[in-house]
Write a structure and sequence with these properties.
heterodimer, A: about 850 residues, alpha/beta, 5-stranded parallel beta sheet, about 20% strand, B: about 120 residues, mainly beta, Rieske Iron-sulfur Protein, 4-stranded antiparallel beta sheet, 3-stranded antiparallel beta sheet, disordered N terminus, FAD/NAD-bd_sf (chain A), Nit/Sulf_reduc_fer-like_dom_sf (chain A)
């Protein structure tokens, strides 16, 4: 058995472990990994997401359990201090000795800190590890401004991060332009304008001579005599390979650092490999992950005894989103290494810059730059990588055709099979198409788990999906929207079956029209269909509900639940408000006012829910259905009763509408709003339905959305009466409920609806299908049978008994734990 | 308590069976959590298959004690449970994570005799 030791547990070190275990099991190769940082390898590429609220665990590439399950011995917080090549062993900082047969150096790099006087002052940071980020975040809370030294990829990333912390942000770059390695002057200029508008300030062609201040930094002194006052500095001026270990054991390193390796990642010592940012290959250090992964692959293949292609260097093309604008740079972007001619478009209104470099003979794409709109990146990159033939008018590559069609001439069908579509996992077009054809793949999930494509950075997913759809088309295969492996029907079909056959339970439907034993996809989808069809109490079928519906409350971090009583239109009496306070106090609940104008009470033990609700119901409250894919709130502004601008009484109408549709279950949650005038204080156009008062009546807007893809609701009918508004709403909601796919909000549903808004209008307003009356009737049947779900539970001892953590003990879940925060409580972090 | 503390007997070597509750205490086609010697164990009454399963109650993904509140079902015939937090699914037979790279959960043998449910404990 071979003993492999990996020094370094960064992204490349981790990838090495992952690839190794895919090929070689524990019985052949033992693996020990030493990581200097305290946490297992995390995603450094998305480091700034940490500031956006991602936790350390979210960024982790694999948990400790994964290493354990793979039989990999991971030791974090352990530093290898010496390699004894003659004895084939390493020594760690605690004096322990570990023998190896093969040693893999994946020590990566550290931030390059230029030797500037004053660099040791408080307030000078680098941007490299999670610890750096913690330090920056805690120091920034005392600061008003920050300067980032370095206008490269990582520097701009760091600049965005400090700007998001609310600091005035400066970027200092030695070169006369941003991203000097990726962009030309005009592209960089365009990027700069965009970033300046977002509030970043740039200091180009500036060399920092010293850091000014006493113990704490107060500013920068530039070489040209100018000064910049700032409270903190983040240095992001490049990387320096961590080659100390290699140096001290006598391996050759480059003049500017990096362990010299051959085309097979071998150092001078045949038992030692170097991969990732510590490896110097043909004078190059590759500061991107994809080449590092290729190197890891190369070593794994050698250990597995497979034939290995020589590593001949890597494509340094990049596409990224910088502070909200797209930037892409591929191939010979600056026309430095080959002869060619460029086609450039520069649109200073939309702030878009595109450049493609074409070979002298006009036949090949050599490289290019995209700023502001990088949607063509994947296709252009593929054309360049595969030497594909250019269209007759190469300018079409970057000029949008009049119809707004995608500019690039060729679609995915023109790509050669060898085209590498996913560079993280090295998956080609051929791999993807073959998998789709030969393994009968029908979904992206299947395709991802089968080929690994798109499981890395995810940038190639749109192209992977296009390839799947294209292959299906080629095969003449119509891929039907089916619920899951248990039901070969779409949601719309199942809805009709349930209605027509009068099916009331999940087991009935599964027996008649499904197979197997169900799953977490079809159970809640069918539960939703049954509820939308019959509006029966969902607690009667508890085990097909998502946990929120099963316990009629929203599960929160730590396993406690939150309670949201209905407050129609956001109108509440003092007496009711006092009851909420009293209940919260009694059960020690955290209170927060929601975006939907009601009050959310967090931190309830599952066993306390019935008691809490009993008291709320006694005070006149009803379930708010915050846990369901159902109507949430109808938000309102104060309206004409109080507001001097109000045209109609928006509060009364909101309450009427909310009470009409309360308890209505749908493919996804539903939110509404009513505004008393065009000032739109209820933000009704951000809702699934929005009603806005006009001089003559109401305007009804539909299919708006906040959330991850904000979208304004669109006008369905103008200047209508309250009665008309309700009628159209009945039809619109019922039509959506009957035809949408599971978990599609109204905005997504409308986007997919053939014919779009015009078709929707013709169905709802003009009733071209002649189903208007039927839709209204179905809605009124649902409204008629409404009952408060919580009232039903509170009054039924058998149902109440279902709300408990342990079946055999009255004890509360001891893992539900809280800690204080701002005079209330919060769950302890997970 | 972390899930690492769960010990697990191999089915054939079970020497002690611990009483977990009456079969009627367990919701059909779903899970319940029981406390056994200080450990949280999820027991699943997979009535449509006429089978019972038990596992640790804690999901390895975010260490939340909630697998008993998850939905059960099958994937290509294999019985599974989905954690209610992020829908990580685990085989009820082997404990293997079926839709990701989480560590496997520990599963326990279950037997039902005269309407009483027992977990194989040692």
């Amino acid at each position: 058995m071979k003993q492999v030791i990996v020094v370094g547990n960064g992204m490349v070190g981790y990838k090495f472990c992952e690839r190794l275990r895919k090929q070689i099991g524990e019985e052949e190769v033992q693996v020990k990994v030493f990581g200097e940082e305290l946490t297992p390898a995390y995603d450094r590429v998305h480091l700034s997401d940490y500031f956006q609220g991602k936790s350390k665990e979210d960024l982790q590439l694999a948990s400790r359990d994964w290493y354990a399950a793979q039989g990999i011995q991971l030791e974090t917080g352990v530093m290898v201090t010496r390699i004894e090549r003659d004895k084939k062993q390493v020594v760690t900082h605690d004096g322990k000795i570990h023998a190896y047969d093969v040693l893999v150096l994946a020590t990566g790099s550290m931030a390059f800190v230029p030797p500037i006087p004053g660099v040791d002052k408080k307030g000078v940071f680098v941007y490299r590890t999670l610890e750096d980020l913690d330090a920056i975040q805690s120091y920034a809370s005392k600061c008003k401004s920050a300067a980032v030294i370095g206008g490269g990829l990582l520097g701009l990333e760091a600049a965005k991060a400090v700007k998001d912390m609310g600091l005035k942000t400066h970027v200092v770059e030695m070169a006369p332009r941003l991203l000097p390695r990726q962009l030309d002057e005009r592209g960089a200029g365009m990027l700069q304008i965009t970033l300046e508008e977002m509030g970043l300030e740039f200091h180009l062609s500036q060399q920092t001579a010293s850091f000014v201040g006493g113990e704490q930094l107060t500013g920068l002194q530039f070489a040209n005599g100018e000064q910049l006052l700032t409270d903190m500095v983040v240095i992001s001026a490049g990387i320096k390979p961590r080659d100390e270990l290699a140096r001290t054991c006598g391996l050759s390193v480059g003049p500017r650092g990096g362990v010299i390796v051959d085309d097979h990642m071998r150092t001078e010592d045949p038992n030692i490999y170097a991969i990732g940012e510590v490896a110097l290959h043909k004078g190059m250090i590759y500061g991107l992950v994809a080449p590092g992964y290729d190197m890891a692959d190369c070593v794994v293949k050698q250990l597995a005894g497979e034939e290995v292609k020589a590593f001949t260097g890597a494509d340094m093309s990049t596409k990224l989103k910088l502070v909200g604008t797209d930037v892409g740079s591929f191939g010979d972007a600056l026309l430095e290494s080959s002869k060619g001619r460029s086609i450039v478009i520069e649109d200073r209104y939309q702030k878009i810059y595109k450049r493609v470099n074409i070979s002298e003979d006009g036949k090949k794409l050599l490289g290019g730059i995209l700023v502001g709109d990088a949607s063509a990146y994947n296709m252009l990159h593929q054309m360049m990588m595969n030497g594909m033939k250019l269209p007759p008018h190469p300018e079409d590559l970057i000029i949008e055709s009049k119809g707004g069609e995608q500019a690039v001439g060729g679609g995915v069908e023109d790509l050669p099979d060898a085209a590498q579509v996913c560079s993280c996992e090295n998956v080609t077009k051929g791999d993807i198409c073959t998998a789709v054809k030969e393994q009968g793949i029908e979904s992206m999930e299947q395709l991802k788990s089968c080929t690994q494509a798109g499981t890395g950075c995810g940038g190639c997913l749109p192209m992977v999906k296009d390839l799947m759809v294209h292959t299906h088309k080629q095969m003449g295969k119509e891929v039907k929207q089916v619920l899951c492996e248990h039901f070969a029907y779409s949601r719309q079909e199942l809805f009709s079956l349930v209605k027509v056959k009068g099916i009331k339970t999940y087991p009935e439907l599964l027996k008649e029209y499904g197979k197997g034993h169900g799953c977490e996809i079809c159970k809640p989808a069918v539960a939703s269909i049954l509820a939308s069809a019959w509006n029966d109490l969902i607690v009667k079928q508890p085990t097909i509900q998502d946990t929120n519906d099963r316990f009629l409350a929203n599960i929160q971090k730590g396993g406690s639940y939150s309670v949201v009583p209905r407050v129609p239109g956001g109108e509440i009496t003092p007496d009711k408000l006092i009851v909420l306070g009293q209940v919260a106090k009694k059960y020690d609940l955290y209170l927060k006012i929601t975006g939907g104008q009601r009050i959310d009470m967090f931190g309830a033990h599952v066993g306390d829910l019935p008691d809490i609700w009993e008291q709320l119901i006694n005070a006149g409250f009803e379930s708010g259905h915050a846990y369901g894919k159902s109507l949430r709130t109808v938000k309102s502004c104060v309206g004409s009763t109080w507001c001097r601008y109000g045209l109609h009484d928006s509060v009364s109408f909101a309450i009427e509408v909310e009470n009409r549709y309360k308890g209505l279950r749908a493919p996804h949650k539903l939110k509404g709003g009513v505004s008393g005038c065009i000032r739109e204080c209820a933000e009704a156009r951000g809702k699934d339905f929005g009603i806005i008062a006009t001089e003559k009546g109401w305007n009804l807007y539909v299919s708006g959305n906040g959330g991850s893809k904000p979208q304004h609701a669109q006008l369905l009918a103008a200047d209508i009466t309250s009665e008309e508004c309700i009628r159209y709403l009945d039809r619109f909601l019922m039509f959506y409920i009957k035809t949408a796919e599971p978990l599609n909000r109204t905005s997504t549903w409308l986007a997919k609806l053939e014919g779009g808004l015009e078709y929707l209008k013709s169905v709802v307003v003009e009733d071209v299908l002649g189903i208007g009356e039927e839709l209204e009737k179905e809605m009124s049947q649902l409204i008629e049978v409404y009952q408060c779900e919580w009232k039903a539970v509170v009054e039924n001892p058998e149902l109440r008994a279902k709300f408990r953590h342990f079946a055999n003990s009255d004890e509360k879940d001891p893992m539900v734990q809280f800690e204080p925060m701002r005079e209330q409580k919060k769950p302890v972090n997970w | 308590m972390t899930y690492d503390t769960y010990n697990i007997p191999k089915n054939e070597k079970v020497t002690s069976w611990v009483f977990a509750g009456n079969a009627t205490d367990f919701t059909e086609e779903g899970g319940e959590c029981v406390l056994i010697e200080g450990e949280q164990i999820a027991i699943f009454n997979f009535s449509s298959r006429g089978e019972w399963y038990a596992s640790q109650n804690i999901c390895p993904h975010k260490q939340q004690a909630a697998l008993s509140r998850g939905m059960i079902g099958s994937e290509k015939g294999e019985p599974k449970v989905a954690c209610p937090f992020h829908k990580k699914t685990f085989s009820l037979c082997t404990g293997k994570n079926l839709n990701g790279e989480e560590a496997a959960i520990k599963v326990y043998p279950v037997k039902v005799e005269e309407g009483k449910v027992y977990i194989g404990w040692h």
